Amino acid sequence: MSLTGKVAIVTGSGRGLGLAYAQELARHGARLVVNDVDQQVADDAVAAITAAGGEAVAVVAPVGPTETAKALVAAAVEHFGRLDILVTNAGVLRDTVLWKMSDDDFDTVVNVHLRGTFTCVREAATYLRGQGEGGRIICIGSPTGQRGNFGQTNYAAAKAGIVGMVRTWALELARANITANAVIPVAATAMTETVPFFKDFVDAAARGEQMPPFARRVLGFGTPDDVAGVVAFLASDAAAGINGQAVGVGGDRLAVWSHPQEVTTAFTDGGWSYEALTEDWESLFGDALQSVGQPMPTPPATAGTETAEKVRS
């Protein structure tokens, strides 16, 4: 399914995952509105897309404010005459443990990821509904938003919120033939290069080396290009029947995340008292309690002593 004739906005697309998404969409025929906060980075992204035969323009502005969302949609309409696809990828990190996280640490991350996704999708959805030809909303989540991660209160909250909004938008926009889905990527980027567990694999990718099967299969960890195909697919007509989903991708792995649901239930006449819970909780729910955090398997010896030592630490 070609994307020829389609117009896409990709926020945070000057480098990393966002650039990979924009380039892949362009490769399949879409015309692009690139977004970054750095003029040179945005210009370089546009140049790379046009050098490969695509069409692109840049909007240099931070996502979060409504004004940026309006500027992005206006650029698509002004330069290309329409809008069909929005990919909300822009993000920042301010990692620290709860008791050291400042108001600014929290607000900055939530403003860019969560509010930025909301304002951009609101503006795009308003235009797409008026255009009357359907559309594709693709929002980028994270395993941290699905499972939590030490030191990422702000990021976990924002990414979990994004998936929650996607489920709601899938309901609200369905009648307009606009789908909303989340992609949960795991890839070597500036955001993962600081994670000790992934460092050896990120460094290998930076050197142009093939990641080992342990990374690509067991961890589901790869490069931005491994994720880009899924984004392009969800943007296409071939994905018209996919809506409200959280699709995980990384390395050689593709997955669909489950939505939160009750895993077990119990009833008692008159409701649950403190005494009843104290007596019955363990027998009823002890085996049903859910784990938190992303499980990290121990790498094989062939993955390298240095990596194994980091995992153990």
Regarding CATH, which class of the domain at 7-187 and 223-257?
Answer: Alpha Beta
Low-confidence stretches: 303-313
- Which of globular, elongated, flat, extended, rod-shaped describes the shape? globular
CATH superfamily grouping of the domain at 7-187 and 223-257: NAD(P)-binding Rossmann-like Domain
Structural class: alpha/beta
Tell me the helix content: 40-55%
Proportion of beta-strand residues: 5-15%
According to CATH, what is the topology of the domain at 7-187 and 223-257? Rossmann fold
**Can you write the helix and strand succession as a string?**
EHEHEHEHEHHEHHHEEHH
**What is the average of the pLDDT values?**
93
CATH architecture of the domain at 7-187 and 223-257: 3-Layer(aba) Sandwich
N- to C-terminal distance: 47 Å
The gyration radius over C-alpha positions equals 21 Å
Characterize the largest beta sheet: strand count, sense, and whether it forms a barrel: 8 strands, mixed
What is the overall number of helices? 11
Biggest sheet, spatial arrangement of strands: 3-2-1-4-5-6-7-8
Number of strands: 8
